[in-house]
Amino acid sequence: MTSAAALKTFTLSNGIKIPSIAAGFGTKWASRHRPEQKEDELDPGVIQGVKDAIAAGIYHIDGAEVYGTEGEIGVAISESGVKREDLYITTKIMKNVTDPIAALKTSLTKLKTDYVDLYLIHAPFFFDNLEEVWKGLETLHKEGKAKSIGVSNFKVEHLERILKVAEIKPVINQIEFHPYLQNQSPGIVEFSQKHGVLIEAYSPLGPIKEKGPLDPILEDLSKKYSKTPAQIIIRWTLQRNVLPVTASAKPDRLKEANEVFDFTLTEEEVSKITEVGNSHEKRFFWTDGKYF
Ligand SMILES: NC(=O)C1=CN([C@@H]2O[C@H](COP(=O)(O)OP(=O)(O)OC[C@H]3O[C@@H](n4cnc5c(N)ncnc54)[C@H](O)[C@@H]3O)[C@@H](O)[C@H]2O)C=CC1
Ligand SMILES: O=CCc1c[nH]c2ccccc12
Protein backbone atom coordinates (compact mmCIF):
# COMPACT_ATOMS: atom_id res chain seq x y z
CA MET A 1 0.00 0.00 0.00
CA THR A 2 1.28 3.51 -0.81
CA SER A 3 2.01 5.73 2.19
CA ALA A 4 -0.55 8.26 3.39
CA ALA A 5 1.79 11.13 2.52
CA ALA A 6 2.31 9.87 -1.05
CA LEU A 7 -1.00 11.46 -2.04
CA LYS A 8 0.22 15.01 -1.29
CA THR A 9 0.55 15.55 -5.02
CA PHE A 10 -0.88 13.96 -8.13
CA THR A 11 1.10 13.80 -11.35
CA LEU A 12 -0.76 15.14 -14.38
CA SER A 13 -0.54 13.41 -17.78
CA ASN A 14 1.96 16.10 -18.87
CA GLY A 15 4.30 15.10 -16.02
CA ILE A 16 3.63 18.20 -13.88
CA LYS A 17 2.94 17.63 -10.19
CA ILE A 18 -0.19 19.28 -8.74
CA PRO A 19 -0.85 19.79 -5.00
CA SER A 20 -3.65 17.36 -4.19
CA ILE A 21 -5.81 19.65 -2.02
CA ALA A 22 -7.18 22.88 -3.45
CA ALA A 23 -8.97 25.76 -1.74
CA GLY A 24 -11.75 27.26 -3.84
CA PHE A 25 -12.75 30.91 -4.07
CA GLY A 26 -15.97 30.60 -6.03
CA THR A 27 -19.52 29.84 -4.88
CA LYS A 28 -20.06 31.38 -1.44
CA TRP A 29 -17.07 33.66 -1.87
CA ALA A 30 -18.52 34.95 -5.11
CA SER A 31 -21.88 35.63 -3.44
CA ARG A 32 -20.18 38.67 -1.91
CA HIS A 33 -21.03 40.33 -5.23
CA ARG A 34 -23.76 42.69 -4.30
CA PRO A 35 -25.33 44.78 -7.04
CA GLU A 36 -23.79 47.91 -5.57
CA GLN A 37 -20.26 46.47 -5.48
CA LYS A 38 -17.94 48.04 -8.03
CA GLU A 39 -15.99 45.77 -10.39
CA ASP A 40 -12.61 46.97 -9.10
CA GLU A 41 -13.57 46.95 -5.40
CA LEU A 42 -11.70 44.19 -3.58
CA ASP A 43 -13.18 42.30 -0.64
CA PRO A 44 -10.75 42.13 2.30
CA GLY A 45 -12.54 38.98 3.54
CA VAL A 46 -11.67 37.11 0.37
CA ILE A 47 -8.06 38.36 0.46
CA GLN A 48 -7.82 37.10 4.04
CA GLY A 49 -9.43 33.78 3.03
CA VAL A 50 -6.77 33.14 0.39
CA LYS A 51 -4.04 34.10 2.86
CA ASP A 52 -5.58 31.73 5.44
CA ALA A 53 -5.56 28.89 2.91
CA ILE A 54 -1.90 29.51 2.11
CA ALA A 55 -1.05 29.78 5.82
CA ALA A 56 -2.82 26.43 6.31
CA GLY A 57 -0.42 24.96 3.78
CA ILE A 58 -2.92 24.79 0.90
CA TYR A 59 -0.86 26.23 -1.95
CA HIS A 60 -3.36 25.25 -4.64
CA ILE A 61 -5.93 28.03 -5.18
CA ASP A 62 -8.98 27.64 -7.41
CA GLY A 63 -10.54 30.70 -9.01
CA ALA A 64 -12.45 31.64 -12.15
CA GLU A 65 -13.16 34.66 -14.31
CA VAL A 66 -16.84 34.60 -13.30
CA TYR A 67 -16.28 34.33 -9.53
CA GLY A 68 -15.06 37.90 -9.42
CA THR A 69 -12.38 36.87 -6.92
CA GLU A 70 -9.26 36.96 -9.15
CA GLY A 71 -8.35 40.46 -7.91
CA GLU A 72 -8.39 39.28 -4.31
CA ILE A 73 -6.40 36.14 -5.16
CA GLY A 74 -3.82 38.36 -6.90
CA VAL A 75 -3.36 40.60 -3.86
CA ALA A 76 -3.27 37.66 -1.45
CA ILE A 77 -0.69 35.65 -3.36
CA SER A 78 1.54 38.67 -3.88
CA GLU A 79 1.39 39.44 -0.14
CA SER A 80 1.54 35.80 1.04
CA GLY A 81 5.30 35.61 1.43
CA VAL A 82 5.26 32.37 -0.58
CA LYS A 83 7.18 32.36 -3.87
CA ARG A 84 4.97 32.34 -6.94
CA GLU A 85 6.59 29.15 -8.24
CA ASP A 86 5.62 27.33 -5.03
CA LEU A 87 1.94 28.21 -5.49
CA TYR A 88 -0.46 26.51 -7.88
CA ILE A 89 -3.07 28.87 -9.32
CA THR A 90 -6.08 27.81 -11.38
CA THR A 91 -8.52 30.04 -13.18
CA LYS A 92 -11.28 29.32 -15.67
CA ILE A 93 -12.77 30.89 -18.78
CA MET A 94 -16.52 31.16 -19.30
CA LYS A 95 -17.67 34.66 -20.28
CA ASN A 96 -15.04 35.74 -22.77
CA VAL A 97 -14.83 32.55 -24.81
CA THR A 98 -14.77 34.44 -28.12
CA ASP A 99 -11.23 35.54 -27.26
CA PRO A 100 -9.37 33.24 -24.82
CA ILE A 101 -6.12 35.15 -25.36
CA ALA A 102 -7.70 38.41 -24.17
CA ALA A 103 -9.63 36.61 -21.40
CA LEU A 104 -6.48 35.15 -19.86
CA LYS A 105 -4.64 38.46 -20.25
CA THR A 106 -7.34 40.12 -18.11
CA SER A 107 -7.24 37.28 -15.58
CA LEU A 108 -3.44 37.43 -15.33
CA THR A 109 -3.53 41.18 -14.69
CA LYS A 110 -6.02 40.64 -11.85
CA LEU A 111 -4.05 37.69 -10.50
CA LYS A 112 -0.82 39.76 -10.65
CA THR A 113 1.11 36.98 -12.32
CA ASP A 114 2.56 36.13 -15.72
CA TYR A 115 1.09 32.64 -15.90
CA VAL A 116 -1.50 30.36 -14.38
CA ASP A 117 -0.66 26.81 -13.48
CA LEU A 118 -3.99 25.58 -14.81
CA TYR A 119 -6.49 27.18 -17.19
CA LEU A 120 -9.86 25.46 -17.54
CA ILE A 121 -12.86 25.85 -19.82
CA HIS A 122 -15.38 26.42 -17.01
CA ALA A 123 -18.39 24.73 -18.61
CA PRO A 124 -19.46 23.52 -22.03
CA PHE A 125 -23.11 24.62 -21.71
CA PHE A 126 -23.14 28.19 -22.92
CA PHE A 127 -21.36 28.14 -26.29
CA ASP A 128 -20.88 25.69 -29.09
CA ASN A 129 -17.38 26.40 -30.40
CA LEU A 130 -15.62 24.15 -27.86
CA GLU A 131 -12.94 23.11 -30.37
CA GLU A 132 -12.03 26.73 -31.17
CA VAL A 133 -11.84 27.66 -27.49
CA TRP A 134 -9.62 24.63 -26.87
CA LYS A 135 -7.27 25.77 -29.69
CA GLY A 136 -7.05 29.13 -27.90
CA LEU A 137 -6.05 27.36 -24.67
CA GLU A 138 -3.42 25.37 -26.60
CA THR A 139 -1.94 28.65 -27.89
CA LEU A 140 -1.81 30.01 -24.34
CA HIS A 141 -0.08 26.84 -23.19
CA LYS A 142 2.52 27.11 -25.98
CA GLU A 143 3.14 30.74 -25.00
CA GLY A 144 3.82 29.62 -21.41
CA LYS A 145 0.87 31.56 -20.00
CA ALA A 146 -0.98 28.41 -18.92
CA LYS A 147 1.34 25.64 -17.68
CA SER A 148 -1.48 23.10 -17.99
CA ILE A 149 -4.90 23.25 -19.62
CA GLY A 150 -8.11 21.40 -18.93
CA VAL A 151 -11.88 21.48 -18.68
CA SER A 152 -14.70 21.55 -16.16
CA ASN A 153 -18.24 20.16 -16.13
CA PHE A 154 -17.49 18.21 -19.31
CA LYS A 155 -19.52 15.14 -20.25
CA VAL A 156 -18.09 12.26 -22.29
CA GLU A 157 -19.44 13.78 -25.53
CA HIS A 158 -17.64 17.09 -24.85
CA LEU A 159 -14.35 15.39 -24.00
CA GLU A 160 -14.61 13.30 -27.16
CA ARG A 161 -14.92 16.46 -29.24
CA ILE A 162 -11.81 17.95 -27.63
CA LEU A 163 -9.78 14.75 -27.88
CA LYS A 164 -10.53 14.58 -31.64
CA VAL A 165 -8.86 17.94 -32.32
CA ALA A 166 -6.40 18.19 -29.43
CA GLU A 167 -2.72 18.64 -30.07
CA ILE A 168 -2.44 19.01 -26.28
CA LYS A 169 -4.77 16.81 -24.25
CA PRO A 170 -6.75 18.20 -21.30
CA VAL A 171 -5.08 17.19 -18.03
CA ILE A 172 -8.08 17.78 -15.75
CA ASN A 173 -11.88 17.66 -15.74
CA GLN A 174 -13.23 19.55 -12.70
CA ILE A 175 -16.71 18.25 -11.89
CA GLU A 176 -19.04 17.87 -8.94
CA PHE A 177 -17.88 14.70 -7.24
CA HIS A 178 -18.55 13.30 -3.76
CA PRO A 179 -19.89 10.01 -2.40
CA TYR A 180 -23.47 11.01 -3.29
CA LEU A 181 -22.56 12.00 -6.87
CA GLN A 182 -19.85 9.77 -8.26
CA ASN A 183 -20.73 10.42 -11.91
CA GLN A 184 -21.86 13.97 -12.57
CA SER A 185 -22.79 12.69 -16.04
CA PRO A 186 -22.91 9.07 -17.25
CA GLY A 187 -19.51 7.37 -17.34
CA ILE A 188 -17.54 10.61 -17.01
CA VAL A 189 -15.13 9.50 -14.28
CA GLU A 190 -14.14 6.24 -15.98
CA PHE A 191 -13.82 7.91 -19.40
CA SER A 192 -11.71 10.78 -18.04
CA GLN A 193 -9.42 8.47 -16.08
CA LYS A 194 -9.05 6.13 -19.09
CA HIS A 195 -7.81 9.10 -21.11
CA GLY A 196 -5.40 10.30 -18.42
CA VAL A 197 -7.63 13.22 -17.43
CA LEU A 198 -7.45 13.73 -13.64
CA ILE A 199 -10.81 14.31 -11.97
CA GLU A 200 -10.96 17.35 -9.71
CA ALA A 201 -13.88 17.28 -7.28
CA TYR A 202 -15.82 20.41 -6.53
CA SER A 203 -18.27 20.25 -3.62
CA PRO A 204 -16.34 17.27 -2.24
CA LEU A 205 -17.97 17.72 1.19
CA GLY A 206 -21.51 17.19 -0.11
CA PRO A 207 -22.34 14.40 2.38
CA ILE A 208 -21.68 16.55 5.44
CA LYS A 209 -23.99 19.31 4.25
CA GLU A 210 -27.13 17.30 4.98
CA LYS A 211 -28.19 14.05 6.62
CA GLY A 212 -27.79 10.82 4.63
CA PRO A 213 -27.00 7.09 4.81
CA LEU A 214 -23.26 7.69 5.19
CA ASP A 215 -23.63 9.50 8.52
CA PRO A 216 -23.11 6.45 10.82
CA ILE A 217 -20.20 5.19 8.71
CA LEU A 218 -18.47 8.57 8.78
CA GLU A 219 -19.04 8.74 12.51
CA ASP A 220 -17.46 5.31 13.09
CA LEU A 221 -14.47 6.13 10.90
CA SER A 222 -14.07 9.51 12.63
CA LYS A 223 -13.75 7.69 15.96
CA LYS A 224 -11.42 5.03 14.57
CA TYR A 225 -8.96 7.51 13.03
CA SER A 226 -9.55 10.52 15.34
CA LYS A 227 -10.45 12.58 12.30
CA THR A 228 -13.55 14.64 11.45
CA PRO A 229 -16.16 13.44 8.93
CA ALA A 230 -14.86 16.14 6.54
CA GLN A 231 -11.35 14.67 6.77
CA ILE A 232 -12.69 11.14 6.16
CA ILE A 233 -14.45 12.33 3.00
CA ILE A 234 -11.40 14.22 1.77
CA ARG A 235 -9.25 11.15 2.38
CA TRP A 236 -11.78 8.95 0.51
CA THR A 237 -11.65 11.42 -2.40
CA LEU A 238 -7.84 11.25 -2.56
CA GLN A 239 -7.84 7.46 -2.34
CA ARG A 240 -10.25 7.45 -5.32
CA ASN A 241 -7.46 9.32 -7.18
CA VAL A 242 -9.60 12.43 -7.29
CA LEU A 243 -8.38 15.90 -6.27
CA PRO A 244 -10.73 17.73 -3.86
CA VAL A 245 -11.38 21.48 -4.20
CA THR A 246 -12.82 22.46 -0.85
CA ALA A 247 -13.76 25.81 0.66
CA SER A 248 -14.20 27.44 4.02
CA ALA A 249 -14.13 30.93 5.46
CA LYS A 250 -12.84 29.37 8.70
CA PRO A 251 -9.04 29.00 8.91
CA ASP A 252 -9.36 25.97 11.22
CA ARG A 253 -11.40 24.11 8.63
CA LEU A 254 -8.84 24.83 5.93
CA LYS A 255 -6.12 23.51 8.22
CA GLU A 256 -8.26 20.46 8.90
CA ALA A 257 -8.73 19.82 5.19
CA ASN A 258 -4.96 19.68 4.75
CA GLU A 259 -4.39 17.31 7.72
CA VAL A 260 -5.26 14.12 5.88
CA PHE A 261 -1.81 12.75 5.07
CA ASP A 262 -1.21 10.84 8.30
CA PHE A 263 -3.81 8.12 7.94
CA THR A 264 -5.07 5.74 5.27
CA LEU A 265 -8.54 4.26 4.90
CA THR A 266 -8.50 0.53 4.21
CA GLU A 267 -9.63 -0.64 0.78
CA GLU A 268 -12.79 -2.04 2.43
CA GLU A 269 -13.56 1.34 4.01
CA VAL A 270 -13.10 3.14 0.69
CA SER A 271 -15.38 0.58 -1.00
CA LYS A 272 -18.01 0.90 1.74
CA ILE A 273 -18.19 4.70 1.36
CA THR A 274 -18.34 4.26 -2.42
CA GLU A 275 -21.11 1.68 -2.21
CA VAL A 276 -23.29 3.40 0.42
CA GLY A 277 -22.71 6.77 -1.26
CA ASN A 278 -23.94 5.32 -4.55
CA SER A 279 -27.22 4.30 -2.92
CA HIS A 280 -28.24 7.95 -2.40
CA GLU A 281 -27.90 10.50 -5.19
CA LYS A 282 -27.65 14.17 -4.33
CA ARG A 283 -26.53 16.96 -6.66
CA PHE A 284 -25.57 20.34 -5.23
CA PHE A 285 -24.64 22.12 -8.44
CA TRP A 286 -25.56 22.55 -12.02
CA THR A 287 -25.90 20.27 -14.96
CA ASP A 288 -26.56 21.35 -18.54
CA GLY A 289 -26.19 24.92 -17.40
CA LYS A 290 -29.04 24.79 -14.90
CA TYR A 291 -28.46 25.52 -11.23
CA PHE A 292 -30.21 23.50 -8.58
N1 LIG B 1 -16.21 24.26 -11.84
C1 LIG B 1 -17.40 24.51 -11.31
O1 LIG B 1 -18.43 24.61 -12.00
C2 LIG B 1 -17.50 24.66 -9.83
C3 LIG B 1 -16.36 24.85 -9.08
N2 LIG B 1 -16.43 25.02 -7.72
C4 LIG B 1 -15.16 25.25 -7.00
O2 LIG B 1 -15.07 24.38 -5.88
C5 LIG B 1 -14.92 25.14 -4.68
C6 LIG B 1 -15.49 24.41 -3.52
O3 LIG B 1 -16.88 24.17 -3.71
P1 LIG B 1 -17.83 23.97 -2.44
O4 LIG B 1 -19.12 23.41 -2.90
O5 LIG B 1 -17.85 25.24 -1.67
O6 LIG B 1 -16.99 22.86 -1.64
P2 LIG B 1 -17.19 22.04 -0.31
O7 LIG B 1 -17.89 20.78 -0.59
O8 LIG B 1 -15.84 21.96 0.32
O9 LIG B 1 -18.17 22.91 0.59
C7 LIG B 1 -17.71 24.00 1.33
C8 LIG B 1 -18.67 24.26 2.48
O10 LIG B 1 -18.67 23.12 3.33
C9 LIG B 1 -18.68 23.54 4.65
N3 LIG B 1 -17.42 23.05 5.29
C10 LIG B 1 -16.16 23.23 4.88
N4 LIG B 1 -15.28 22.60 5.67
C11 LIG B 1 -16.03 21.99 6.64
C12 LIG B 1 -15.70 21.20 7.76
N5 LIG B 1 -14.46 20.90 8.08
N6 LIG B 1 -16.72 20.73 8.51
C13 LIG B 1 -18.00 21.02 8.20
N7 LIG B 1 -18.36 21.78 7.14
C14 LIG B 1 -17.40 22.27 6.38
C15 LIG B 1 -18.77 25.05 4.67
O11 LIG B 1 -20.12 25.42 4.75
C16 LIG B 1 -18.22 25.43 3.33
O12 LIG B 1 -18.75 26.65 2.84
C17 LIG B 1 -15.56 26.51 -5.01
O13 LIG B 1 -15.12 27.54 -4.17
C18 LIG B 1 -15.08 26.69 -6.44
O14 LIG B 1 -13.73 27.12 -6.44
C19 LIG B 1 -17.64 24.93 -7.07
C20 LIG B 1 -18.80 24.73 -7.75
C21 LIG B 1 -18.84 24.63 -9.20
O1 LIG C 1 -18.11 27.39 -10.57
C1 LIG C 1 -19.12 27.31 -9.92
C2 LIG C 1 -20.44 27.75 -10.27
C3 LIG C 1 -20.47 29.13 -10.80
C4 LIG C 1 -20.57 29.46 -12.08
N1 LIG C 1 -20.64 30.80 -12.21
C5 LIG C 1 -20.56 31.34 -11.01
C6 LIG C 1 -20.57 32.67 -10.62
C7 LIG C 1 -20.47 32.94 -9.29
C8 LIG C 1 -20.38 31.91 -8.37
C9 LIG C 1 -20.36 30.58 -8.75
C10 LIG C 1 -20.46 30.31 -10.08
TrEMBL record:
CDD domains: AKR_AKR3C2-3. Coiled coil: none annotated. PROSITE patterns: ALDOKETO_REDUCTASE_2 (PS00062). Residues 44-276 form the NADP-dependent oxidoreductase domain. One of its GO terms (molecular function) is oxidoreductase activity, acting on NAD(P)H as acceptor. Keywords: NADP, Oxidoreductase. One of its GO terms (biological process) is cellular response to oxidative stress. Substrate binds at residue 122. The active site is at residue 67. The keyword Acetylation does not apply. Gene3D superfamilies: NADP-dependent oxidoreductase domain. The record marks 92 as: Lowers pKa of active site Tyr. It comes from the Eukaryota. Belongs to the aldo/keto reductase family. This is Aldo-keto reductase superfamily protein. It comes from Sugiyamaella lignohabitans.
